[in-house]
Known about the structure:
two-stranded antiparallel ribbon
Amino acid sequence: MHENFDAPPTPPDPESLKRGHEWRDMNLRGLMWFMVIFFGIGLLVHVIVWISFRNVAHTAVSNDPAPSPLNTGPAQPPSPILQPTQKYHEKQPWQDLQEMHERENAHLSRYAWIDEKAGIVQIPIDRAMELIVDHGLPVAPAANVKPSN
């Protein structure tokens, strides 16, 4: 079952042409040339970009000023140090936040005197909300304001 590729193609079936079917085989030689050219151009572009980046990196390094002989090490950040580092602060930000929430919750859930002489006290926030629900918000007396003419 050896086919002769040099022979002219057989004429298409009229019914196949009516349905819009292809009647010729794909040109394998053209496809192969397309693939070789496509990948060759892609490889060429990659090499050009690699050479360009290498040259840019070399230029950037050569344009950097020489380090000062007085430089003793990396610069320390200005005070106050806000975020942890092993050298300056042992806690992570989430630990600081957790401690802050614990302090706030302790402050909001205790009884304390604000001004003992005036009789002003601090009560837990939950108790304050219960009192507001039970008794409502205090109403300030209406101010005696005369309309201006």
